[in-house]
Design brief:
Layout lengths: L20 E2 L2 H29 L1 H4 L2 H26 L5 H6 L1 E5 L7 H14 L6 H9 L6 H6 L1 E5 L19 H5 L8 H13 L5 H13 L15 H16 L69
Antiparallel strand pairs: 1-3, 2-3
Helix pairs in contact: 1-3, 3-5, 9-10, 9-11, 10-11
Length: 320
């Protein structure tokens, strides 16, 4: 049975676009049986140890039974929760099948996710022979069982033999560091950031006219949910780079960089596009004017970028 591909727009907080596939019911079932076999062996070892060392002979019967039940509970829940939390979403069974549990946003699972999956799995897997889990996985587009729906997770099939995806970092464009430091992007979701990221990474494949049009279209769709408004004269592509850098700074585990002063925000471009324009240049010079207080400057273009194309200069080349 072929696993279904993950939809576009699944991007991790480190800005890594996931090119993975959702696990099928068959592969997940085999992984669960492998884990169940390991848990069963642990229970056998516990029973052998109890019979060999005579735990009930050293302690009262009720206390020995309580200790055995406590140990069984620790194995039943500690096994999946411990492995998935400490092994980045994998158990021995999942690792053998090349599977991994992640959140629906693509981030690694934590203790809360693993605990919810284990608690719900206690009722939907072994007592019911996994029938509710199979129905939920077959009906849902992402192959989620009930525990995944409760925890907000999915199980992915890792592509073996391929290089691990490298994070794509977006830095604040030169001259706009202060604006990026004060940019509020809390209203943007993962899908919005995915659109910005994909736009910046693919603009170089377009013609200059199409490149500017696409950048303006994406930027106009985000203007109402990002504050403050873009400074006057900042091209749409440069502003999208500011948004991407601000989102990464917000999601970074470290402290967000601060700027000494907030630049004065100018009017945003109109909703229909066309309001985005490159900053004015001095007459007879291809060099951007010196940055003044509160005014953004079009950052220099890298070598190899076409020069002096009237009406098509975006002013920013996204990182490769």
């Amino acid at each position: 049975m072929r696993s279904s591909p993950s939809p576009p727009g699944t991007v991790t907080p480190e800005a890594v676009e996931l090119e993975l596939e959702y696990a099928t019911v068959g592969s997940r079932g085999i992984a669960y049986l492998l884990d169940l076999l390991i848990i069963g062996l642990l229970f056998v070892l516990i029973a052998v140890a109890e019979g060999t060392f005579g735990v009930s002979g050293f302690v009262p019967g009720w206390l020995g039974l309580a200790l055995l039940l406590l140990l069984a509970f620790a194995v039943q829940f500690g096994y999946p929760i411990g492995f998935e939390t400490l092994w980045r979403g994998r158990t021995p069974g999942k690792a053998a099948m090349g599977l991994r549990v992640v959140t629906v946003e693509g981030a690694p699972v934590g203790l809360r996710h693993a605990a919810l999956r284990a608690v719900v799995g206690l009722f939907e897997l072994l007592p019911t022979l996994g029938v509710p889990a199979m129905i939920s996985s077959l009906v849902g587009a992402r192959g989620q069982r009930l525990g995944d729906l409760a925890a907000g997770t999915v199980v992915l099939r890792e592509r073996r033999g391929s290089r691990a995806p490298a994070p794509q970092q977006f830095a604040a464009p030169p001259g706009l560091e202060g604006y990026v430091a004060h940019l509020d992007v809390s209203r943007l979701g993962p899908a919005d950031y995915a659109a910005v990221r994909d736009t910046l990474l693919r603009l170089h494949e377009l013609t200059p006219a199409a490149r500017r049009h696409v950048a303006e279209t994406v930027a106009d769709g985000l203007l109402g949910r990002v504050a403050p408004a873009p400074p006057s004269g900042v091209p749409a592509e440069v502003w999208l780079a500011c948004v991407a850098a601000a989102v990464q700074a917000r999601r970074s585990p470290g402290p967000r960089p601060t700027a000494p002063a907030r630049p004065a925000g100018g009017p945003a471009g109109p909703a229909g596009g066309g309001g985005w324009a490159a900053p004015p240049r001095e007459a007879g010079s291809d060099t951007p004017p010196a940055s003044r207080a509160g005014e953004a400057v079009d950052p220099p273009r890298p070598a190899g970028e076409a020069q002096n194309r009237p009406g098509t200069d975006t002013g920013f080349q996204p990182p490769a």
